[in-house]
Specification:
Elements (H helix, E strand, L loop, with lengths): L6 E3 L1 H4 L1 H4 L7 E16 L5 H25 L1 E3 L4 E6 L3 H5 L7 E8 L5 H14 L9 E16 L6 H13 L11 E5 L12 E7 L2
Parallel strand pairs: 1-3
Antiparallel strand pairs: 2-5, 2-6, 4-5, 4-7, 6-8, 7-8
Helix pairs in contact: 3-5
Protein name: GyrI-like small molecule binding domain-containing protein
Organism: Dehalogenimonas formicexedens
InterPro entries: GyrI-like (IPR029442), GyrI-like_CCH_Lin2189-like (IPR008319), Reg_factor_effector_dom_sf (IPR011256)
Length: 209
Amino acid sequence: MVDRPTETIDLKKQLKHLYNPPVGKAVFVEVPEFSYLMVDGRGLPDGPDAIAAIEALYSVAYALKFSVKKEQAIDFSVMPLEGLWWSNNMDDFVHTNKAGWLWTYMIMQPEFITHALVEKVIDEVRKKKNPPALGKVRFASLAEGMSAQIMHIGPYSEEGPNIEKIHRLIKESGHTFEGARQKHHEIYLSDPRRTAPEKWKTVVRQPYV
């Protein structure tokens, strides 16, 4: 345990251009490589596998936060939940056949988080509470590169017009994307348990080539 003033880090503020795009206006951003805790799965966004994945991710994310604060005197904010969405048959995605959707839920981590620290913390979480999906948590990097994104306000089911805006911006600029490779990305800034659906804030992002 270190004995020095605690440093405070809020990545969401440092990366404001990536986590606070304009409401209703699609914009271009470049997303560099970041490290994430991830859990992969398939099926309904609110199904049991998804709920278990989210529980495991937050368990490890908060354990990392407390471990780093204690051992390194760095207090960093836990980042919001994010999700990548696609399907092996993108017709299922377009036509909202959610049972066939593939997903990766994830939480971004600061650059000083290491594989060794994640493994150590996962062992600690396993001894204390051992959430069902803990064994599926992995630590990996993702570099999306050039992307278009927009802030959506309201229920997830009403994202359609905003998704169309970012797709239109990409196509009108002469670029393309393949949904199974450049995956639809959502960043959930609101806690649906505490916020009315009409006030939910979600960053909707689409990488392109």
